[in-house]
Amino acid sequence: MPRKRRAPIFGLHFARAFGRLIRIYWASPDARIGALLYAGAAALELGTVYANVRLSDAERNIFDALELKESGAFFAATGLFLTVALAFVLVSTFRIYIRQALEIRWRRAVTGHYLERWINGHAYIQAELHRGELDNPDQRVQEDIRDFVASALGLSLSLLSAVATLVSFGGLLWVLSGHFPLRADGLELRIPGLLLWVAIGYAVLSTWITHLVGRPLVPINFERLKVEADFRYGLTRFRDHVETVALSHGEAVERLGLLERFSHVVGNWWQLIRAQRNLMLLTTGIGQTNSLVPLLVAAPAYFAGHLTLGSMTQIRFAYGQVSGALTWFVNAYQEIARWRASIERLRTFAEVMDQTSREIERGKIHVEAGASPALRLAGLHVEEPDGCPVLEVADATLATGDRVALVGPSGCGKTMLIRAIGGIWPFGEGRIEVPAGARMMFFPERPYFPLGSLRAAVSFPAATGSFPDEQIRETLELLGLGHLSARLDEVEPWEQVLSPHEQQRLALARAFVHRPDWLFLDKATTALDEDMEKRVYALLEERLPRATIVSVAHRPEIADYHARRWTFVPGRDGHVLLQAA
Question: Which residues have CB under 8 Å from 98's CB, separation 6+?
Fold first, then answer.
């Protein structure tokens, strides 16, 4: 079997993904401030290089004074060294501070962009269409964006510093090693800037070898982000469903499942540490060997009296700086590999969202605002995401104030129809006209509660504080939740604190505070007993007399609370037909 060819770390594919991510922030209104911050960080980065040059001069003077036993020159050079060192500390500190200030602004812009694209009207559709491809979007938004921004800034500024260091110390090294004599068999050879050429040759060779040894780190880091996020998601899912698991005595199964997920983390970790071991053996060996090179090359000139001890010290320092600049790629390789993996995951995330938008636009159910106060279904064909037909509706109308029960066997498309009316199920074709400006609310069987206070849970999807506390407390009393009235300020994971019937009643409380024009109850009372369910529908009739109510009838009694029925009848060809009455 032929080996699969690995994509290059850098290439056109990478450039497009990188350019797209860069434009998110640098084409935004905040880019002006970002440019000023980046310019400041770059200036301070160059300042550290200049300070290093001055430190090398001061250090040379110190050792020359020691060699000549001149105390006055020694203390003068030491004073200069300490002054420059203090400036270096200040510049280095504020260089990091400004970079971090830019980092959080950049991260905020990219995070906002991805959240806007992910958490929108297409979020449910994306999950249905690309469930297997879009793993752990939460981790991509939180961790991958953070790593991308931090590495983009860190790598670019360190590369700038490396270039400035190469220019500054490269020139110094050229001057210091401009007249080194090389003697062999009685011949003497002088190569201008000998140590600079040695540093360049050593760096080219080590960079090439490092790339060959370290290349596997890119796919390994990509996989690491995925398996770590999968394991974390499994832990979170158990926490959110701990009661159900405990009642089922399913702890052993959950534990085995988590251990299996963690085994993938362990396997990936061994791949990672073996690859890092090989790379570290190489880079550490290169670094340790390289530190001796300038001394070995310059030693003959020193012994011949062409160099002072201070010059030897400065040569060693300058060579180290030049070598470090030239081996920037070697030293930054592991971070580049992680950065490359983050860019790849953000690219695939964006492509999935792009693909979703294209798929939605091709032959979909159109939900439009109509001039009529009624809701109309015209030529509606509802399908599965893979195109398998589910439901056909020739024409049907819901008038203002109607009470309609959706009746039919499980799996016949009742929930799909409600999703289509809500605009989150575009699979199929046809047209749905909804009244312009109508306020609609949808209540699924399993309610959602945002992270926050009980007040926020009742107010959702409106912001906390949109309704008076007195109104919220009155509504809770109506639904038999008066014992929760004193807990409006408490912040809890309400899905775990409240029982299923309390959760459904708390969600239904939203209908009485929001007072929508249209209510769609998709098995939203399954956890209630018959008396409470009857009370809920009586309260809806009393408090929202003009609202249109559509309910999925999960049991026969539900239909008795409605004046009309829409019956879902399975056809011979597998389609389900809607009969409106």
Answer: 37, 40, 41, 44
10 Å CB burial of residue 516 (0-12, 13-18, 19+) is middle
Among 415, 356, 327, CA closest to 127: 356
Asked if 342 and 225 count as a contact pair (C-beta separation under 8 A), the reply is yes
Task: Give the torsion through C-alpha atoms of 163, 165, 168, 170, to 10 deg.
Answer: -90
Helices (H), 291-413: 293-303, 309-326, 328-331, 333-361
Q: With helix as H, strand as E and coil as C, how does 408-428 read?
A: CCCCCCHHHHHHHHCCCCCEE
The percent of residues in the chain predicted with pLDDT above 90, rounded, is 30
Phi and psi (nearest 5°) for 55?
A: -65, -40
User: What secondary structure letter does DSSP report for 491?
Assistant: B
- How far apart CA 444 and CA 414 sit, in angstroms, is 12
pLDDT digit string (tens) for 232-291?
888 887 877 776 677 767 788 888 888 998 999 999 999 988 888 887 887 777 767 777
Lookup result for tokens 């159900």: 244
pTM for the whole thing?
Answer: 0.67
Domain boundaries, the chain: 12-360, 365-580
The CATH code for residues 12-360 is 1.20.1560.10
Q: Tell me the pLDDT band of 7, cut-offs 50, 70 and 90.
A: very low
Residue 391: alpha-carbon gap to chain centroid: 37
- The predicted pLDDT at position 455 comes to 94
Comparing 29 with 244, the larger pLDDT belongs to: 29
Superfamily of domain 365-580 in CATH is P-loop containing nucleotide triphosphate hydrolases (3.40.50.300)
CA distance 368 to 116: 23
- CB burial of residue 94 (10 Å; 0-12, 13-18, 19+): middle
Q: Do domains 12-360 and 365-580 have the same CATH topology?
A: no
